[in-house]
Structures are given as C-alpha cells and as structure tokens.
Design goal:
It contains five helices and six strands; from the N terminus they run H-E-E-E-H-E-H-E-H-H-E. By secondary structure, the chain is of the alpha/beta class. The protein has a single domain, classed as Rossmann fold. The strands form two sheets. The chain has a four-stranded parallel sheet with strand order 3-4-5-6, with helices on both faces. Helix 2 links the parallel strand 3 and strand 4. 36% of the residues are buried.
Length: 212
C-alpha cells in the first residue's frame, strides 16, 4: 500500500484504509484534481464526507544549481497547491459534518536537507497552511491533523530522475528499518478516532534508526 502519489485514485484508496479500520463514513469521489483552482468533490445522495486524508506527493530531489525548474513546478503544484485545492474543495462538507482533515507532510517539513530544498519547501508549506487552517476552523468543530513521516518504504524516492539521488535514497533505506505504510495508517486512525473534544494536531513519526 502506498501513502504518497499524485493520482486522485490514491485519495480514494487511502480513505478506504481508514474506513476499513474504523468503519467511518469516508466515501467520496475526486474529479478535476489537475484543473488548477477547480477541484471538485462529488458526493452521492447517500454519501457524506466526515474524514479527509490529503496525501498527494512527488519527490524530485537534486542540486539547486543547474536544476530543471519544471521539476520544481511539478512538486509545488502537486505537493502544495494540490493539497490546498483539495482542502478548499472538501472544507464545506467537513464544516457541515464537523469532520477531520488529515494532511500528510514529512520530517522534511521540520528540517530541510541539501538537495531536497524544493521538496522541503512544499512540506514546510503544508505544515504552515495546516496550522493556519486549524486556527480558522477549530472553533467550528473541524479538527486538523498533520502527519509528518520519516523514511517510509514506498515508491516516493523512485520518483527521482537523478541517478545519484536515487542511489542515495536506496542506500539510506538499506541503512535502517524503514517505516511501513501501515505504520502511517495506524497513526492516522489513532488521530481521527479520538473523542470529539480531543484534537491530535501533529504526529511526527520516524523510524527508530533515522537520525535526521
């Protein structure tokens, strides 16, 4: 099971993980994700949106000097703007249901690393946007949770087109007991199943072996 991708289908898959584990009503269809500023959540008459997990992400690391800036644009549009647009689309439903928004950031939203500047910038952005959102909606009954995973065994590092960056990620993964997607799913379930008066706003979760 993956926890990060830009495809709308993943949002449905991810919500199904939560629904299976908690039996919460997390049924929705995502359309027009790639139409900037105009994503839509289409709910059937018998459907409702109570929990929303926002997980779009792509990692294209490399040096800033000589970078292909189209890759920067792709990361900003997918990781940050895509997340913001989906919140904008889902928020009216979540305000109505007094639901929960789960934003997946990263340890890169806490500390930036060389060769990952733009990726880190998008994750810092998600964390900042989520805190602002939390302050706006918490008194209206909507909880905002930021999950910040460290190194997880997913396809994310395979997005890198730079062979040096891909090899470095593989070496890093081989040096530790990485998190598994289910570890992150468990953290999400923990956050969204708390009593309504409890808001778990942030979970930073790393492999025990990860130092940074």
């Amino acid at each position: 099971m993956k926890i990060g991708a830009a495809a709308p289908a993943l949002l449905v898959v991810t919500s199904a993980v939560i629904r299976t584990a908690t039996r919460l009503p997390v049924r929705f269809t995502v359309t027009m994700l790639c139409d900037p500023g105009k994503p839509m959540l289409v709910l059937g008459d018998d459907e409702e949106l109570a929990q929303f997990k926002n997980n779009a992400g792509v990692m294209l690391n490399g040096p800033i000097v000589g970078a292909d800036i189209t890759q920067w644009t792709r990361m900003v549009e997918t990781n940050l703007l895509g997340s913001m647009y989906m919140v904008h689309a889902g928020l009216p439903h979540l305000l109505e249901r007094r639901g929960t928004i789960v934003q997946v950031s990263s340890t890169s939203g806490w500390i930036a690393s060389a060769y990952a500047g733009v990726y880190a910038a998008t994750k810092f952005g998600i964390t900042a946007f989520s805190e602002s959102l939390r302050q706006e909606v918490t008194t209206r009954g909507v909880r905002v949770v930021v999950i910040e995973p460290g190194f997880v065994a997913t396809e994310l590092t395979g997005h890198n087109t730079d062979p040096t960056m891909r090899a470095a990620a593989q070496n890093m993964a081989a040096s530790m007991r990485t998190l598994q997607p289910q570890d992150i799913a468990d953290a999400v379930v923990y956050a969204v199943t708390q009593p309504e008066h409890v808001a778990v706003n942030e979970i930073l979760i790393r492999p025990t072996d990860q130092t940074q």
